[in-house]
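SEQUENCE AND FOLD
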Amino acid sequence: MSKKSYKKSVLISVFLMIIFPLIGSYFKWPNHLPPIFGVFPQTEVPPPVKPYFNLLYFLLGFAVCTLISAVYLFPRLFGFRPALIVSSTTPKSKFPHWFIPGVFLNLFCWLVMWNILPLTIIQPYVFTPMWWGFILALDGFVYKRNNGKSILAHHPMSMVVLSIVSILGWLLFEYLDYFGVENWYYPNTDIYSQTMYVIAHLLSMTTVWPAVFEWYALLNTFGKLKVRYSDGPKIDFTPYGKILFFIGAATLLGFGFFPFLFFFALWVGPLFVMIGISLWMKMWNPLAPVSQGNWSPFLLMGLAAFINGFFWEIWNYFSTNRNPLFWAYSIPYVNIGIQIGEMPIMGFWGYFLFGVFCWYWWILITGFLGFESKIFSTAHSKFHVE
């Protein structure tokens, strides 16, 4: 595929993810836009009141969550065979010089944010440093377990670009959140000026993709886990590219018109659009190795976001009312009173989809920008930081 065609495909994908909810919204709302559209950050959930619980929706969601869990926990039930595990001879390295500072930065900011260290004067400013400390620590673990190879050690510019891609990716989700009438919102509104709120949120967005990618790199340093899903059903998804593309576009259109009924489209729609366009245009994508039975990159990236989601939710939940980046959820139909942090427990499985989205977004945007970065090896059954 030519660079011109590639960029055109990316632009079409992003354009559809932006415009289709707008089209649906135009016919939904009296003012043609959802309530408080454009207010950033979203600080409240406006009317209409969302449905709290629906048994049919809950059962469908429970079935999907159970299926996802079963694939990860019992892969043999789905046609995966035990992969040949070659004894690892990769020598371990010492921790890099940024590991200890990262650990201390993370722990210090964590204790301040939870008010264990009651330094109220700096509490509004520790969220993003806490996460960058965590990212440095994760990278240090990867470095130690992977013979001195990690994203920061060998691809420092990729980490910078990851942060930029992360901002763009999360801004897309903040935009889509308007059409769901605030599936999440930021209630601590009396700490910063509006300008400072915007700056703080943009800085916090730099941490999302780097954290997920570091977890993915770390998971791939565990030999058994790295090959656990590498010998499964061989499926060529290429013929289904157009179908997935149009399903994604249709769900985003429905999301604009039926924001509660299609609340899941916020996560499913963009992912299906990107998977679809990647297959349709025959770009390399994380589903490509599946044609050879290797599901590892696809499944481990989802697992990386799922694990990181625990830290997102727990650190957020116990933070003080001096954390201007604290978020809460308002998700329809699936609330049963059980939460992980602020997140309804069923919504937590959405992190699997989000992890896959992170990789597709990275591939498409860096390709569009002309930034070539092979952070991970794509050799069969070998997914590690090079």
User: Anything to note?
Assistant: The first helix runs from residue 3 to 28.
